[in-house]
Amino acid sequence: MLAALVATSLGPIRAVGQAVESPPASGTLRQAAKGRFLIGAAVSARGLADPRVADLVAAQYDVLTAENEFKPASLQRQPGRFEFATADRFVEFTRAHGMKLVGHTLCWHSQSPPWIFRGPDGKPLAREEGLKNLKAHIDAVAGHFRGKVVGWDVVNEAISDAKDEYLRKTPGLRSIGDDYIARAFEFAHAADPDAELYYNDYSNENPVKREKTIRLVRDLKAKGVRIDAVGMQCHLILSDSNAIDRLDESIAAYAAEGVKVAITELDVDVLPRRGRGADIGALEKDGANPYKDGLPPEVAEAQARFYARLFQVVLKRPGVVNRVTFWGTQDGTSWLNNFPVPRRTNYPLLWDRALKPKPAFAAVMDVLGRP
Ligand code: G3I
Asked: Are residues 229 and 260 in contact, defined by beta-carbon separation less than 8 angstroms?
């Protein structure tokens, strides 16, 4: 049903700028970034099928990430049966609008078909079988999109949140062993030698995960494995007032390891939170939903200041942060309306539910220096 929706509503590709009330005449994020770094957003196939969203996205950003459509569960639900049609629409859309595309993601413990690393009994596959499945997936997917994406989130969220554990005990690790990460990078490089390769995770602006990330980068480099950038998801929380300082320190620490930094999934949660991060295993049943009738202006302003500080940090180190991608464009379709508590009303992005730019949009434009 979704594929049909996409196939009919995405084509023909619309001209940029039609029928959009926002953004204001003062310019776009893409113009304001002035090539100093790529500015991007995640969008779903359903989002691209909405002409108003498609126009906004094409006007505002340099680079897109498909929110779900390049994940293993979307591309290879059944062994050997690759379904590229929906993902291919992102290639067509970005090409038609002179945009770049990032592939998200080749290897993740979530949104992956269980058979990749587990047998019918749920037990880990033998190492050689797991490696064979990982290689087959990456060969086919990175091969199919060779030359069509600028880079891959090769492995996503493989570092443990637990203080004393280095790597998350993912199905891939249980089948193959710790080196499944290095092998995934090698397979990706072989399948698409010109693509950039990223390790992507949440909460890696925080010191504990930062240290483990540095360990992983060093480990990959010591093995001669190509890694171009650390992807910092940056699912940040407005009430976490030190987050930007930790981000600043962590960008410096990654740069010192000789890798670039991409901010890959930026949003700023304004609702009350018990936990941190983006661990999708951490869903909560209940939680306050204080802004269901609208975002109070003072909260919108606080969020604008938060975003402004973040972009000041990005601009501090030219050439280090090479991309900032928002995880969505407008508040109404953000994953944060359903995480960590289902069915709340959140406001994490730069455009509101009517596609009107919020104070945070103006604040980011001011920091970037309007075109
Ligand atoms: O496709 C089905 C649809 O058929 C069904 O009707 C509907 C009912 O709930 O579910 C749909 O699947 C949902 C899917 O998004 C597509 O909309 C899943 O339930 C939902 O869990 C899934 O959520 C995605 C989540 O990753 C899954 O892990 C979010 O959209 C997506 O924003 C989110 O993105 C992740 C990044 O990939 C990695 N970093 C964290 C980030 C936020 O969790």
From this structure: yes
